[in-house]
Write a structure and sequence with these properties.
With 265 residues, the chain is of the alpha+beta class. The protein has two domains: 96 residues, Nucleoside Triphosphate Pyrophosphohydrolase, CATH 3.90.79.20; 128 residues, Nucleoside Triphosphate Pyrophosphohydrolase. It contains three helices and 15 strands. Strands 1, 2, 3, 4, 5 and 6 form a six-stranded mixed β-sheet that branches. Strands 10, 11, 12, 13, 14 and 15 form a six-stranded mixed β-sheet that branches. Strands 7-8-9 form a three-stranded antiparallel β-sheet, with no helix packed on it. A hairpin with a 4-residue loop joins β13 and β14. The longest helix has 18 residues. It is globular. The mean pLDDT is 92. Bound molecules: zinc ion (ZN).
């Protein structure tokens, strides 16, 4: 069987990542395992392998039209708090690849129908040879420290009372460090230096790769960017507002700084 593109007849048992319109099929709040015929679903429009888990294939099945039982279709976020983190990671891959298939059916160069490549996760145009890969959008997270405070902001996407560290997309031709410094200055008007890499996390909403940095405050007063940041401020580690969960990179970075402050006391 081809590693990536295949037909249902090739598969006996697998973990199934069934995706439709940005939602994942989680009939028992878990990724279903078994043979396709057990599930009573119609044949998917696209089928390919996205990985393996414990020697079993992990397959992506994509539908364009929503199927029945809407409560079985959930955001991949539902797996973020799953005790085994690999399910969120595989779901992230499935969601991003499903979106890639959906948005690359035709060649961006000559307009012909694209084909799924059998040996790698890519789409190939049989007419002109143009090849595309799933899009990944690099995004920096910056946790800024000033004395014994951390800068947290509430973006216009967050409910009142919920704060996080700053985030922004990397622009073409920019290093991660340049993007971090620029985003901080744009979003809150503050200058930072001494960036230290914290870690990374794929974030499939829809195709970000989060890369975190700790930074030290240098100068400037907080001035929130209109239409982007609703409020921002310096928070002491024992007086934090509601922050992202520990499964997210931003949540981990805030908690790491909190521990650093505790150690220093
Ligand atoms: Zn083409």
């Amino acid at each position: 069987m081809n590693k990536h593109s295949l037909s249902l007849a090739d598969v006996s048992q697998a973990y199934w990542f069934v995706v439709c319109q940005g939602k994942l099929w989680l009939p028992q709040a878990e990724i279903p395992f078994g043979s396709w015929s057990e599930f009573g679903l119609t044949e998917p429009e696209q089928l390919c392998q996205i990985g393996e888990w414990q020697q079993q294939p992990c397959l992506l099945a994509v539908y364009q039209d929503q199927l029945s039982v809407p409560e079985h279709w959930q955001s991949a976020r539902a797996l973020l708090e799953h005790p085994q983190s690999h399910w969120f990671e595989l779901a992230a891959r499935a969601m991003q690849f499903a979106l890639f298939l959906q948005t690359h059916r035709y060649c961006g160069q000559c307009g012909s129908a694209m084909r799924l490549v059998s040996w790698e996760l890519a789409m190939l145009c049989p007419q002109c040879g143009h090849r595309t890969y799933p899009r990944i959008s690099p995004c920096v997270l910056v946790a800024i420290r000033k004395d014994d405070c951390i800068l947290l902001a509430r973006s216009n996407r967050h409910k009142p009372g919920f704060f996080s560290i700053l985030a922004g997309f990397v622009e073409s031709g920019e290093t991660l460090e340049q993007a971090a410094v620029r985003e901080v200055e744009e979003e809150v008007g503050v200058r930072v230096a001494n960036l230290r890499y914290a870690g990374s996390q794929p974030w499939p909403f829809p195709h970000s790769l989060m890369m975190g940095f700790y930074a030290d405050y240098v100068s400037g007063d907080i001035v929130c960017q209109p239409n982007e940041i609703v409020e921002a401020g310096w928070f002491k580690p024992d007086e934090l507002p509601e922050i992202p969960p520990v499964q997210t990179l931003s949540g981990q970075m805030i908690r790491y700084l909190q521990q650093e402050f505790d150690k220093a006391q």
